[in-house]
Amino acid sequence: MTAPSQLPAFHCGDQLRPTIDKSKPQGPNRQVVQMFEAISPTYDLLNRLLSFGLDASWRRKCVAALGIGANQAILDCAAGTGDMAVEVCRQVPSAHVVLLDPVEGMLARAREKLSLFPDAKIQAVRGNAEVLPFSSQSFDRIVVAFGIRNFLELDTGLSELFRVTRRAGKGAILEFTPDRHPIFQKFFRFYFMHIVKPIGALVSRHATAYDYLRLSIDSFPTSSELGQRLARVGWIVSSHEKLAGGVVSLFVVQK
After folding, report:
1. Is the pLDDT of residue 44 over 50?
2. Measured between alpha carbons, how far apart are the two ends of the chain, in Å?
3. What sign does the CA torsion over 218, 189, 249, 26 have?
4. Is pLDDT of 23 > 90?
5. pTM score, two decimals?
């Protein structure tokens, strides 16, 4: 991995952060972080199961939609185990990629994967989307894949992503959304309850995590509502595509 000193200068400081009500929780609650720490060794299996094995193709499509240029700075927010950062490195080897996630276990897995790209310019940072530790207009591109539904304060996180993106920069959001086609909705529920949950619980030994994940998907805003909330904080929605019968939405946004 490239040493942080070789990366673009991302300065952190309280004076650069937006004013946030200190009486409110600052990021994912402790129980959620502990849950993701517990399932981090099997998290990739969960993604494969939830996506019917299609998540790799969705990530390729997501990165391609961003139109990343040579040597551009990319923020992979809620990076998880680094699959999106790996795809960025595959498509644009010269990109400067910063991964941010509140779960150290996830970042540890990401570091293992990204060690296969010794020439890549990569930095992993532990932190929360609601209080991004970066200067305003630090990144050319931002991406969030299957993590935005875990933001404790969605609008705050979307605003922060907007703040750290440079003028004319772009972003992509890939997420499971609840407004699926009725046929796919029935299939998804059956598939989750009878295949994903039993296998995931058996492998991870953390059955309650899968109840949380199902509820986090079902309670997340619809794709239409998410588009409205993106626009409300300043993003211009360039495109929105439903994948796999609406199981997943891909938003491409512009600042």
Report:
1. yes
2. 30
3. positive
4. no
5. 0.83
Tokens of 86: 């790996």
Q: What is the DSSP code (8-state) at residue 68?
A: P
Render pLDDT for 185-242 as a digit per residue (tens, 0 to 9): 777 778 777 877 777 777 767 767 777 777 888 889 999 999 999 999 999 999 999 9
Rounded to 5°, angle at Cα 163 from 111 and 10: 45
Q: Which residues contact 123 (CB under 8 A, 6 or more apart)?
A: 1, 2, 4, 7, 10, 97, 98, 99
Are 203 and 45 spatial neighbours (Cβ–Cβ below 8 Å)?
yes
Chain mean position to CA 241:
17
Tokens of 203: 């492998």
SS3 content of the chain, % helix, strand, coil (to 5): 45, 20, 35
The CATH homologous superfamily of the domain defined by 28-34+52-178+220-254: Vaccinia Virus protein VP39 (3.40.50.150)
Domain ranges of the chain: 28-34+52-178+220-254
Length of the chain: 255
Question: For 112, what's the count of Cα atoms within 13 Å in the CB-facing half-sphere?
Answer: 10
Spatial neighbors of 21 by CB under 8 A, at least 6 apart, are none
